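Q: I'm building a small set of examples for a reading group on sequence design. Run inverse folding on the following structure and report the sequence directly after it, with nothing in between.
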């Protein structure tokens, strides 16, 4: 009887795990990092965003995302609001500041501080796993030991980049980051036996999504401040505001009401799927400014904004479909309707020159329909 009572208390505590104030403060420091990454997309040359800057955007964003994910997952499985864990998190805040200050499209000039910040962040997380594995038992002990020992492989590879110059340095750096990202997938057989707390993890990833929605709000302010308040700019900003509300409604209503938060998995669909959700949200935020300023070639502008929306649609559909209650999942007819709507808007806009406020209106309509069907 006592054993069953103990297991019930453990399950209840696991289900009720809450985000701490220090975690929220930790997220706050990533706001500047995300903003720097998003602004890379605003570099326009000859009516398009050069491939160089699109690539740099991804290369800057991925280490930010993975450093944040690494600590969030440790807290999810093993974190406690105790002094030792607070000290580790505070030390990581120091490395977050270093990494954020060094983020730039000019990688060479700030390479060493960036490397120190990133490696310091990931090393702190690896040390935390090794520290807790001694106190854990059974599968949780194996999981902590696997992650705490294997993460050093990627860190060692990335650190070797210091011995190289030119493009080889970056190949070695991102080879280490790639290994780091793939290790949880390789060790999935260990991780599924120590499942994540789905409720807590969704809450953490939702808070990061909220940061990225903030970037879209900043884009509205930029629109209003970049010109005189004409009826076109006011209309564009108003429609964009409705677009952001629809995105918020679609994403957060799904998280709050439609997903099964007690399901026990390794959480890898949430983790890796959100990389593409976050990338698309940054791209949509940049699209708002670029669409209003009309600095891009018309066809490139359409491809960029509708491509961003399509990426968001596919990634959110993948993530939420897996965790959504079975009777609430989207059917083929819903997916066909949404893809058809997006396809019609894109095709019509491609053959006829459409004002920017109508294009943003089409995107807004898509998100309203998407929110209606999914919530």
């Amino acid at each position: 009887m006592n054993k069953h009572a103990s297991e019930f208390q453990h399950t209840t505590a696991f289900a009720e795990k809450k985000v701490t104030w220090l975690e929220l403060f930790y997220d706050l420091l990533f706001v500047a990092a995300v903003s720097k990454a998003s602004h890379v997309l605003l570099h326009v040359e000859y009516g398009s965003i050069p491939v160089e800057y699109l690539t740099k955007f991804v290369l800057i964003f991925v280490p930010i995302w993975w450093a944040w994910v690494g600590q969030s997952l440790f807290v999810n499985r093993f974190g406690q609001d105790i002094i030792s864990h607070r000290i580790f998190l505070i030390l990581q805040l120091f490395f977050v500041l270093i990494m954020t200050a060094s983020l730039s499209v000019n990688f060479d000039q700030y390479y060493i501080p960036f490397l120190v910040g990133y490696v310091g962040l990931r090393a702190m997380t690896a040390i935390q796993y090794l520290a807790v594995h001694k106190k854990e038992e059974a599968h949780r002990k194996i999981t902590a030991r696997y992650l705490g020992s294997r993460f050093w492989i990627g860190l060692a590879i990335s650190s070797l980049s210091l011995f190289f110059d030119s493009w080889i340095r970056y190949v070695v750096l991102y080879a280490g980051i790639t290994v780091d990202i793939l290790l949880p997938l390789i060790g999935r057989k260990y991780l599924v036996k120590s499942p994540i707390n789905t409720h807590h993890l969704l809450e953490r990833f939702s808070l990061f999504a909220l940061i990225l929605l903030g970037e879209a709000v900043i884009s509205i302010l930029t629109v209003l401040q970049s010109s005189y308040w004409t009826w076109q700019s006011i209309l564009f900003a108003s429609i964009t505001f409705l677009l952001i509300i629809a995105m918020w409604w679609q994403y957060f209503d799904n998280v709050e009401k439609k997903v099964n938060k007690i399901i026990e998995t390794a959480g890898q669909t949430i983790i890796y799927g959100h990389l593409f959700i976050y990338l698309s949200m940054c791209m949509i935020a940049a699209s708002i400014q670029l669409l209003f300023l009309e600095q891009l070639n018309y066809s490139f502008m359409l491809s960029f904004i509708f491509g961003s929306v399509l990426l968001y649609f596919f990634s959110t559909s993948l993530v939420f479909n897996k965790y959504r209650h079975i009777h609430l999942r989207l059917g083929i007819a819903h997916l066909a309707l949404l893809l058809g709507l997006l396809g019609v808007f894109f095709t019509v806009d491609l053959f006829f020159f459409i004002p920017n406020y109508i294009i943003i209106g089409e995107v807004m309509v898509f998100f309203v329909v998407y929110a209606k069907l999914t919530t």
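The chain has two domains: 21-192, 198-374.
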